[in-house]
Amino acid sequence: MNDIAVPIRLTSLAHGGGCGCKIAPGVLSEILHAVPRGVVPEALLRGTENNEDAAVYKLNDNQALVATTDFFTPIVDDPYDFGRIAATNAISDVYAMGGKPIFALALLGMPINTVPLQVVRRITAGGESICAEVGIPIAGGHSIDTVEPIYGLVALGLVHPDKVKRNNGARAGDRIILGKPLGVGILSAALKQGKLSETGYRRMVEYTTKLNRPGVEFADMEGVHALTDVTGFGLAGHLLELCRGAGVGAHLRWSDVPVMPEAVEHAKAGIFTGASTRNWAGYGKEVTLKSLQEWERNLLTDPQTSGGLLVACSPESEAGVLEVFRRYGFDAARTIGSFSVGTGLAVVA
Fold first, then answer.
1. Which residue, among 200, 225, 229, has the nearest Cα to 213 in the 3D structure?
2. What is the 3-state secondary structure (H, E, C) of 39-82?
3. Which positions are catalytic?
4. pLDDT score recorded for residue 2
5. pLDDT single digits (tens) 126-171
6. What span, in angstroms and rounded, lies between the C-alpha atoms of 70 and 47?
């Protein structure tokens, strides 16, 4: 799993990992509600409302700037893979707004007396490799000496002001399509316990470093009514954000939800994350489960790092959305349910 000899396990230096170290949804909601709204210029098309994936600022009639930041503690021990995953995750929020990335800034926090410089260099090199794949530069950044290792990016992109995809546009009758399989948090927990296979590790890295490029094309599709990506709050949490923002309910068919096979094995064995439990405590009252077992619920709330795009689209656009996913190599993309009149999320086996 490591391409260089690493004298330490990065995951052992952090209390959480990846998007699993996000502040719990209930606590975050209380924090945000206590913050004064402040200045909101007319050009700010998207801000903090409804937990949007990024801010969007109109520059002119044809261009709007998409700005976001994301960083976290190690989800894997390999420093190069950690950098790649963190960069992919940060850039995903630009894609989730329908934007095209243009450049990034690096955010780095390291316990310098603990982590060797060669390891730090491999982390940053991993992030740079993803930006090179996207075709954008890392044009600067900021670094500090911290207790836990932290890495991520400020990612910026451009989108037409009329084509910004929000997370509050879902309509009753829309199809729900998920671009990547679930299970990243559980595989990361298994890795920490020394129970993740080489195959499981490769699959986890494969999905967490796969860029959500289809978001750029979804910006041009009128039938795509809402868009977000699944990260730390799990599939249920981010789907509920779409529901609340649009004032609709959602029905999910659990049997249609793509899940990484080894994640199922570990979930059945009782491996899950603390973030999954916190997620359920934060929004479980809005979810109705029918015939689901506890391990399945833990997958439903499993924090995803660099997870898949979550699309709300008209029935007429469903085939087109799936075709775009397939063209970009997202073979696991599936229609997993639909939106309806009402509130909350209902999940059936």
1. 229
2. CCCCCEEECCHHHCCCEEEECCCCCEEEEEEEEECCCCCCHHHH
3. 19
4. 44
5. 999 999 999 999 999 999 999 999 999 999 999 999 999 999 999 9
6. 15
Tokens 């973030």, located at residue? 275
Give 216-221's long-range contacts (Cβ < 8 A, gap of 24+).
Answer: 216/95, 216/98, 216/99, 216/100, 217/324, 218/98, 218/165, 218/309, 218/311, 218/321, 218/324, 219/98, 219/99, 219/159, 219/160, 219/163, 219/164, 219/165, 220/163, 221/313, 221/317, 221/320, 221/321, 221/324
- The backbone torsions φ and ψ at residue 207, rounded to the nearest 5 degrees and listed phi first, read -75, -35
Pairing of strands 138-145, 100-110: parallel
Work out the number of other CB atoms within 10 angstroms of the CB of residue 27.
13
The radius of gyration of the chain from alpha carbons, rounded to an integer in Å, stands at 19
Element (H, E) at 311: strand 309-313
How far apart CA 192 and CA 221 sit, in angstroms, is: 41
Sheet hosting strand 55-58, strand order edge to edge: 44-46, 55-58, 64-72, 150-159, 100-110, 138-145
3-class SS at 280?
Answer: helix
Distance, in Å, from the CA atom of 274 to the CA atom of 277, rounded to the nearest integer, reads 5
> Can you tell me the distance from the alpha carbon of 250 to that of 246, in angstroms, rounded to the nearest whole number?
11
> Are 281 and 267 contacting, i.e. CB atoms less than 8 angstroms apart?
no
Would the pLDDT of 93 be above 80? yes
Please, what is the Cα angle at 24 between 20 and 30, to 5 degrees? Answer: 155
Whole-number Cα distances in Å, 303 to 106, 118, 165, 322:
23, 30, 23, 24
Q: DSSP of 332-347, one letter per residue?
A: T-EEEEEEESSSSEEE
Whole-model pTM: value is 0.91
pLDDT 10s digits, 262-305: 999 999 999 999 999 999 999 999 999 999 999 999 999 999 99
